[in-house]
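As a warm-up, study this chain.
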Amino acid sequence: MFQYRTVLAQMRRGASEREIAPGHYMGRRKLAALRELADAHGWLDAQAPLPEEAQIAAALGTPKQAASTVSTLAPHRDRIAGWLDQGVSGTTILAALRRNHGYQGYSSVYRMIVSIRGERPPDATVPLSFAPGEAAQVDFGAGPMLMHPAGALRRTWAFVMTLCFSRHQYVEFVWDQTVATWLGCHRRGFEWFAAVPRRLIIAR
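Now compare it with the structure written out below.
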């Protein structure tokens, strides 16, 4: 039943049968049948909790003893979830399980990670929309090493001004990030665009 919950978690995140099939949980025909069953039972609602293994087994008509089949990683689920929250990679998690618990199977670790991530709500994103001339983003970034007038190679800084609507850019390489350089780059950027946006946003 563990693989069924893993597949359901992926379906709830919008994955298609074609996208799930490479994980070798089950064939596409079986995936399509599971999606139909899940839709009928309301299991694809990302706001509702995932069904328990017993519920899935009952809906599939699976013998009762099969419903008790759980991942051998189940006792470590909370620990793995904590590692994922800290940004630990799957290979590092497997190494820790091998070292501390003698665990060997990477495929089960992978399925557990997919299951944990599938149960979490997707990150919300808000698309930004700007009118022409409304705003520009400005930032400094590391530039290439160039020959300084003093005769030595020095690191440069790239000042970038990007118009939010058209995404057109003005880029200038400078030797420092002083206030005077910062203001001068802005002035030259406005001259390049022959206009001044209504507001400036410092990129993060």
